[in-house]
Every structure is written in C-alpha cells, then in structure tokens.
Structure prediction request, 569 residues.
Amino acid sequence: MEKRWHILEAPKAKTEALQEALKISPTVCRILVERGIETFEAARRFFRPQLSDLHDPWLMKDMDKAVDRIIRALEHKEKILVYGDYDVDGTTSVACMFRFLQGRAAPECLDFYIPHRYREGYGISRMGIDFARDNGFSLIISLDCGIKSAELIGYAAGLGIDFIVCDHHLPEDILPPAIAILNPKQADCPYPYKDLCGCGVGFKLITALARRLGVPDSEVFVYLDLVATAIAADIVPMTGENRILAFHGMEKVNVSPNHGIRALINLSKLEGELSIMNLVFMIAPRVNAAGRMDDAKKAVLMFVAPTYQEALHYANMLHSDNSDRKEADLSITEEALAIIETDPALVNKKTTVVFQPHWHKGVVGIVASRLIERFYRPTIVLTLSGELASGSARSVPGFNLYEAIHACREYLLGYGGHYAAAGMTLLPHHIKAFSEKFEEVVSATIDPALLIPQITIDAVISLKEVQPSLYRILQQMEPFGPSNARPVFLARGVMDTGHSSLLKGQHIRFSLRQDESLCNGIGFNMPEKFKLLESRQPLEIVFTIDENEWKQEKRLQLKVIDLKPSQNN
Prediction:
C-alpha cells in the first residue's frame, strides 16, 4: 500500500535559539521545537522528568469532597467497593486504589468489582450496584468509568450508596449525581493537565488521600509501574504528567516491578531493560485478554497478589487467555479477509463492514484494526451476541467515526464511542441496510487523502548523521508514545550497495550508502519494495534509528519504514 509522506517543519529561528541554549544536534533541536519544546527550561523538564513537577492533586475539582468522603468511610468502618473497567486502565486503577486502601480499611470493609464484559458490558452496571447493595457497601469508588452513568448512579443513590467517580472520558451534558466527580476534562475543572488516563486520575486521588493521612510519598510511588502500564495501554499523549509518571514508572518496572508485572515479563520471555513499547505490545495484551476471553477479575488479583508465586498463578491464566485471543484473532482475521477479497464490490468500497455470527465478540475490535492494516478505511466487524448483532468499529486517523455511526443511528439499537473507535448493537436483519448507509455517509464526508496512510517525518538527515551520539540523545526522549513518537527520518539520494537481501521472502536486509557513508538496516514485511533496490537507482528512505545486538556487540541500524525512487532521479 502506497503511503503519503508528511515532512514536519520547525521555525528556523526557534530551532537556532534552542540549539544555542542546549548545544546539541540541530536535528534534535528541530524535533523538540516541532513537539512544542522551545526553551532550555522546557527541554530540562522533558529530558529530566521530575516527580516534584507533578501538579498538586488538590487542584482537581471535587478532590476535597472525594477525600473527605473516603476518610469518613474509613473512620466509620463503612464498606467500600472499588469498581473499575475490565481493560488495562481499569484493572490497574482498581489494583492501585485497592492496595492503598488495604492498609487502611479492615479486610471485611473493602472489596473490588470488575464488570463482566459480556454479562454486564462496559462501565457501571446494575448488577454491580446490586452486588454493592446486597453486600452492605455504602461507598463505591469508580475508576476509568462512571462519567456517562448518570441514571445508574442515581439508582445507587436511591439505595443509599454514594459514588465517587474517577474518570477521564469526555463528560456528557448531564453529570452523574455522585458525591464527587474527579475528571480533569470537566469544563469547570481547573486541573492544569487534561490528558491523564483513568489510572492517572485514581493515582491523583491516592496522592491526595496519602497527604491527608500523613502517608509519605514513597508509599504512593510504589504504584508507578501500574500507572505506567495504564498510560502505555490506553494510548494517551506522552506529554506533561503522563511523561513524568511513565518515565518513573518504567524505572520501577526495570528495578522492582509489581509481582504481577514481573510474572508477565517472565512469561513473555522479555530480557534486558524494558521500554514502554514492551508494556504496549507484550504486557498490555495479556492483561486485556482476561476481559476479552473470560473474566478480568483475575487481572486485578494478579496485580494485588502479596507474593510472586500467587501472582504467577493468575499470570499463567492471563497468558493462556492471550493464547486463545491470538488464535481467535488470527482465524477471524483470515475469514474476514477472505470475505472481502473474494468480492470485488467489497474490495472497492470506502468502508469495511463484515459479519459472521460465530465470531468471538472479545476480539472483533482487534480484527477491525487488522483489517485497516490491509484495507485502509473505516471498518466495522460484527458478530452475533444472543439475538442481536454487536461489534466494534475502528477509524483511520483524521476521520470522525462516531459522527458517521451517529448518522446511521436509524438502524441501531445502541451505540457509543469516540472519534477513533466505537461499538454498536443492531438487529441482524438491519446489517445490510446499515452497511449501505455507512458506506454512503463515509463516502460523502471523508477526505480521499485520509484513505491513504500517512507517515509523519520529523527531519531530513544524511546517513553520516546516524551516529551513536545522535542515538544516545534520541534514547533520552523515551518513553515514546502519542505526541512524542520515536523520531522518523528521511534520507535522500541513497543507493543500494548490492549486498541487500530478502529474508524469508518477506523482510529486507538493507545495505545502503550515501556518498561515503554506509548503513545497514532492516525492513519488515515489504518484499514488494525489493525490486527498487535491484534497480540500483537513487532512493529516498524513511526510517527510525535502532540498535541491533549480535553476539554481545551492539551496532546502529536503520529500521526502514518506506522507500521510493528519488524525485530528482
């Protein structure tokens, strides 16, 4: 699939001023300016994130109300239920809050609750509130959910159950009747940083509680590895407080991780110093698999386990769930691709909507993302859930998927989501009409350019700049994530040396030169590009800089993302 290349441009004056202040590579200064880092002080905070730079938790609206209500519950030995979503953000949030309250509440006065994905669905459930009622809980602390549950929280209030909502999703016009709502995205919340994940909001509540109770910060920072895992999994911007929390959370992951994280690291066979990407691609999928394939409560039990052996017991269950998830994901993706590729009418659409009644509900969102890798367009994957069709939708960057689905609401029984992802239910006999309407709406509203993948390039450089000194500075830009992606470079006028090769018919081992500079590289899953190398013409290559270790020797290599003939050729 051809890709669009978008080269970022940083104002020359700002780049030169920053380079004068920092005395480092102009290329790095250009990248920093592109990311809004324009002064020595901003660069210092970026490269040396300090926990002391975290904002005061009391700045968050309703923090005083939340802390007062929890303190009162602890003092009067009320029963507290910690309630969270079934994904990584939700389960880590619950684990942090539960562990903090464990040392301050009697065992019989504290429990946690994770709704079952299929029996209860996302967020606050009536079953969960009834559980609280039947077991004498008078306070529920919801984490990573609750902001959209006004009716159910009103139902709880009628039962004499108070709610404290900790959430980071966009509030609706009607807020739930909770004792306190902690959500920096509230229009009237003065909290300076708006992009915390759910676990981050819960962490701010723990911080405020600790200060009121006279608990030292060291007893709060033990949860930073769980917070970093949530930040990694929830794909929130790697800026501001998220960067500080993730930076120090990764230090804890590599020095003294939570028993559950350590068990998953060992089962994943990860070695050496871990990066945030290891959490994204190895740890998070195993935690999410619990809720996708079975019951996410065991993810919380793993994170709160008092011993490594107990954590390993639950981690093995998650590992098994993830194996099942991968098997289901692979088989459904293959079936979905076969449905599309054997029907020319489906191939040539601007949307993908596929349905099979036997597909596993827990992986349809993942399959939608896989299909976008092949057919780059808004995608919906549906399956049968009871007597209803239900499924997940994923978008391409820049297109508002939720609005498109909203425009098709006449065929839906229920739907929800946001700009990039959504879920829906409908009657099976409405699938065809819904598919046609969705295609009509997307075709009429999407910019055709959005149907071509875009690679954002940070800087144009020469191969002679690919040096250990540059790589060391780039490594200090970790942890990478949204709004702080691993820098992507473009080099022009590059030639194949004649020693490049195709590995397993699928991956390219590059051997490249530009003037007198030589570089080796790897390009995964791009066999169709090999003929460009064989043509021995000047090329433009897009890449990141990586490190390859072979027989205990480390060397820099290019991780090639795309290439095309030089425009000046």
Remarks:
- The CA atoms of residues 225 and 257 lie 6 Å apart.
